[in-house]
Design brief:
By secondary structure, this protein is an all-alpha fold. It has two domains: 1-217 and 226-238, Up-down Bundle (Growth Hormone, Chain: A); 240-440, Growth Hormone, Chain: A (Up-down Bundle). Helices cover 81% and strands 0% of the residues. The longest helix has 30 residues, at 55-84.
Length: 451
């Protein structure tokens, strides 16, 4: 039976691996409910006064400020964790900050824009840092042979956490009619934020109860104060160029990751707009699309995680990028494909959503695995901090889709997304990831104490 346990690992017991994966389940509630499905539209429609002109811009401002903060703080937080050996403590701080910030968003009534916006910045920054710190535990719970599988399972479980939280928010909490029961609708949306914060905290408990931090403090830093740790962290971050020279394959990969993440982020941020405005999906159809994307993304993350142990990390990421290229081309030629097959474009779009959904989960999970395999054993948190930083840079680059689509149209702007995926794949082909993984494994074995 042990061989059939998907959570088995040579580095940690199965229940500890499950506890780590539960954090993906927990933190998906934030992105799904706050960023995607519920609070973003509630903020624009009800928190911001109707006579304010810069409604979308205020939401974009919150996203930009929190992304910039996370971009700057992630490598610093990672370096502090590596020096202190207190990854679990700092993960707890980030989790509580995100959950409490989410709950406090529920206190913001219509018109209290700056309270809502400030709590959005706090919670989203903390969320992104918690994601980084959780990822750094991958090397604590998984060995090289199981890392791809365990990362994929964790990412797949995360999509079900997002699905569970959005059901809680939209079907259990928000039940009033927006047009006829406005006061109740407003209160229920605000309480949905409180429920989401509680959901995050409760679902993350297995992580803090079961997962052990196996990365010790550096010698002499066991009782270092926070100011001393921050100084050391800034010193490490300021030497990023030297760190990159010492880890060429990892930083070459991070650059390629940034490029194809720009394409992925553009799809995530604009798929709803494209589906409604270009494919003309109705509300019920859009709900069906959301479900298709969540389930296929979970399946893709798990499936490619299992595949990684057979074909290697680079080939796994490349395979997921091939899915992206296929799906993007399919959407670009949507009308032509529908005409040839003799079916509605909406039907073709749903089939393509299956491909895109599988690619969403697999690309991010496989990329996380590559970082875990290439990170030096004494710098795992810092390297995942850089992973987060390059991910956020990719998000900023992907936002260019909006400006390009305003100039040339959404369909033509898909060629930009296609270019990101092709460029990322070409960059990836030039990186000797598998050889670097073998070298890292040999270095770790050489440093292991004799028994």
């Amino acid at each position: 039976m042990a061989a059939l346990n998907p959570f088995r690992s040579a580095r940690a017991p199965w229940y500890e691996v499950l506890g780590w994966a539960m954090f993906d389940f927990a933190n998906s509630s934030y992105t799904t409910v706050v960023i995607t499905a519920v609070y973003s539209s509630f903020f624009i429609q009800y928190i911001v006064p109707a006579d304010w002109q810069m409604r979308d811009s205020l939401w974009a401002l919150g996203m930009m400020v929190s992304t910039a903060l996370a971009l700057l703080l992630a490598p610093l937080a990672g370096a502090i964790c590596d020096y202190s050996g207190r990854k679990k403590r700092y993960l707890l701080y980030a989790t509580v900050m995100c959950a409490v910030g989410t709950m406090l968003m529920g206190l913001a009534a219509p018109g209290q824009v700056w309270l809502a916006l400030s709590m959005l910045v706090v919670s989203n920054t903390a969320f992104m840092l918690s994601e980084t710190l959780c990822a750094s535990f991958l090397t604590d719970v998984a060995d090289e042979d199981s890392m791809g599988r365990i990362s994929g399972i964790g990412w797949g479980i995360g999509y079900f956490g997002g699905l569970a939280s959005v059901i809680l928010a939209t079907m259990v909490m928000v039940r009033a009619n927006a047009d006829t029961e406005t006061a109740a609708y407003l209160l229920q949306n605000r309480m949905a934020m409180v429920a989401t914060g509680v959901f995050f905290l409760v679902s993350a408990l297995p992580t803090f109860l079961l997962v052990k931090s196996r990365t010790p403090a550096r010698p002499g830093w066991e009782h270092a104060t926070l100011p001393r740790l921050m100084a050391a962290g800034w010193s490490e971050v300021s030497q990023a160029a030297d760190t990159a020279r010492k880890n060429p394959a990892l930083f070459q990969f991070l650059f390629a990751f940034m490029v194809y993440m720009a394409g992925l982020d553009a799809v995530i941020k604009f798929v709803g707009i494209y589906a409604r405005e270009e494919v003309h999906l109705e509300s019920a159809e859009f709900g069906k699309l959301f479900l298709v994307l969540q389930v296929s993304a979970a399946a893709g993350a798990v499936g490619f995680g299992l595949l990684e142990s057979r074909i290697g990390p680079r080939s796994t990421v490349l395979a997921s990028l091939c899915l992206w290229i296929t799906g993007t081309l399919g959407i670009y030629f949507l009308a032509q494909i529908a005409s040839v097959l003799g079916i509605e474009p909406k039907s073709v779009f749903f089939y393509l959503a299956l491909i895109a959904g599988a690619a969403i989960g697999s690309t991010q999970s496989s990329s996380r695995t590559v970082v875990g395999l290439l990170a030096p054993a004494d710098q795992t948190a810092q390297m995942f901090g850089f992973w987060s930083m390059f991910s956020r840079l990719g998000s900023i680059l992907g936002a260019s889709f909006g400006f390009v689509s305003d100039v040339v149209g959404r369909r033509s702007a898909l060629l930009l997304v296609l270019g990101f995926f092709i460029a990322g794949a070409l960059l990836l082909l030039r990186i000797p990831i598998d050889a670097a993984v073998r070298q890292r494994r040999d270095e770790t074995s050489d440093r292991a104490p004799a028994t």
